[in-house]
Amino acid sequence: MKTFLSTKAVGFYIVVLAALAGIVSGGMFLMWGKSAGASPFLIVAALGLGVVCDVILMLKEIIWLNLIVSVSYTYAVVKLITDNVGSFVDKYQGINLFGDAGQVDTIISISIVIGIAVFLSFAAGFMKRVKE
Questions:
Q1: Where is 94: in which H helix or E strand?
Q2: CB-side exposure of 3: number of CA atoms within 13 Å?
Q3: Residue 110 CB partners (closer than 8 Å, separation 6+)
Q4: By CB count within 10 A, which of 16, 44, 108, 112 is most buried?
């Protein structure tokens, strides 16, 4: 194990952090979605695809997987926000008409964690994961 980690560069650890952010955001979304009655399959699938590709990137240097990871996490955060735009409208207007204004803080916190995964996956795409 020590020899495995000694050959890894900074990009490897960024991929690990991106995968952890993807797992945490997926857990947050599933817990919130169950209580709020909203659990779109596409968001869960996009987060899952990102995490699986991150795990593959930890083991192998496949350049084009960086693109898939970044796109899947970005899709998940954009879909989450656009699916719940009615809640943001209700929060702004001060009434509950299109969504649930009380859910906006949770939606924002989940979006921030997914955004961290997006940022880390973008950064990891520009870095080597194995020392030369």
A1: none
A2: 0
A3: 25, 28, 29, 32, 80
A4: 16
Which two structure tokens, joined as six digits, stand for 27?
């857990």
Asked whether 76 and 47 are in contact (CB, 8 A), the reply is yes
Q: Where are the alpha helices (DSSP H) in 7-131?
A: 10-36, 41-59, 65-83, 85-93, 104-124
Q: Say how far apart CA 58 and CA 52 lie, in whole Å.
A: 10
For residue range 64-106, what is the model confidence (pLDDT) as tens digits?
899 999 999 999 999 999 988 888 888 888 887 777 878 889 9
Burial (Cβ within 10 Å: 0-12, 13-18, ≥19) of residue 40: middle
Output the six-digit token pair for 50: 């990102």
CA distance 106 to 64: 32
